[in-house]
Amino acid sequence: MTDPDQEPVPFEEWDRPRQAWMLSGDCRGYRQRTLLLEITTRALFPTVLVFSIYLLLVGHYGPGGGFAAGLVAGLAFVLRYIAGGSDAAVRIRPPALIGLGLTVALLTALAPTVVGAPVLTTTKIALDVPLLGHVETQTSVFLDTGVYLLIVGVVLDLLRSLGAGIERDMRDAGEPR
């Protein structure tokens, strides 16, 4: 049912998104939009990110948890970039994310030397969290978090670098965005 006080939408703009849910800002030109890809990306993007967090948290029991989780999250951002262009990228600068990831990984790797243990020594942490109950984890999850942030930052930086050239070429050719 439509609101009688609302003015009618012109036919050319009937499929334009009107809500800011998972939107990148400006929409692409109508000739370059793939509505099915955009809708699928809106549904898959948060799901893939949650799956990457799952891989990050359980990956320290197997090899490559932070790296694999970072690649999965990076693929989610690649999908979002393909569907929405450069406007769909995250607002954080990729070099800042890379620097944060390197800092977290380096500090986590060197932290055991403070207590006289070798570099990259891991230990088990057990906590009683009020709402969750008894929680156990390894300190290697912090190193995996640093690697995760580093890989996501590198993927976003690659998207920014490669995508800028593609968009510049499209702009020079006079194609609408």
Task: Explain the overall architecture.
The structure is a single chain. By secondary structure, this protein is mainly α. It has one domain. It contains four helices and two strands. A two-stranded antiparallel ribbon has the order 1-2. Helix 2 runs parallel beside helix 4. The radius of gyration is 21 Å and the shape is elongated. About 3% of the residues have low confidence.
What's the structural blueprint in terms of helices and strands?
Blueprint: H1 35-58, H2 65-84, H3 94-110, E1 124-129, E2 133-138, H4 140-172
Antiparallel strand pairs: 1-2
Query: How many structural domains can be distinguished in the coordinates?
Result: 1
Largest beta sheet: what is the strand line-up? 1-2
End-to-end Cα distance, whole Å, is 33 Å
Largest sheet: 2 strands, antiparallel
The averaged pLDDT comes out at: 81
Helix residue percentage: 40-55%
Strand content: 5-15%
| Spans where pLDDT lies below 50 across 5 or more residues | 21-25
Taking Cα atoms only, what radius of gyration do you get, to the nearest Å? 21 Å
Per DSSP E runs of 2 or more residues, the count of β-strands stands at 2
Protein name: Na+/H+ antiporter MnhB subunit-related protein domain-containing protein
InterPro entries: CPA3_antiporter_subunitB (IPR050622), MnhB (IPR007182)
Main location: membrane
Family: Belongs to the CPA3 antiporters (TC 2.A.63) subunit B family.
